[in-house]
Amino acid sequence: MNIKLVSWNLHRCIGGDGIQSVERCAAVLQEINADLVVLQEVESCPGHEFDALNHLAQATQCTALAGNTMKLGESDYGNAVLTRFPYQEIKSHDLSVADREPRKAMDISFTLSGVRLQLVATHLGLRPSERREQVKRLLTAFDYDAHDIVLLAGDLNEWWLWGRPLKALHCLFPDTPVRRTWPTKLPILSLDRIWVAPRPVLKSLKTHRSSLARQASDHLPLVAELQF
Hints:
Layout: E1 2-9, H1 22-32, E2 36-44, H2 52-60, E3 63-72, E4 75-83, E5 89-94, E6 104-112, E7 115-123, H3 128-139, E8 149-155, H4 167-172, E9 192-197, E10 202-207, H5 211-216, E11 222-227
Parallel strand pairs: 1-2, 7-8
Antiparallel strand pairs: 1-11, 2-4, 3-4, 5-6, 6-7, 8-9, 10-11
């Protein structure tokens, strides 16, 4: 079975030109045509005309799963997952650190062609000390006994490839490649990550660099091809 997974920080659908365009972000996701989409900094406002998450779900023909972390005006704001697959269970892990922006991780289980898959989707904090605490909590979320494949995807906000907050994750997900995704005009940092265990399941990892993607957000989408 082949799966395409994308992780993308939408930056509230505000591009480098300062224009907020959900339609532009939807068009980028249509270019990628992924089966699973992990999003950060996305707004949802059920029942209102401006409901970015619902618009993206309709444009990609996916089911939207919201992992809201806070209120932003009238909208919910935070993480989300778009999926073309039915899911079995969804959990939420609180990663918030005192006096910092609230953070959470979405924990979703699937069974695909008899293979049990766990997807953990998150957006970590800006300070190293914050990320160290959040990674400690994340480590308790991974359930290798109940799943055949474990995935971690999101904006981990780590500027350095071997930053201290990520050392423990490197032990769980060895030899996972990284790609530069930020900023879009001249990507120099690998803030966005997709980690896979067991490692052979990950067949390719690349950034989506279309002209539209370079305009739609301050992050480039990170795209993984999985095969099992």
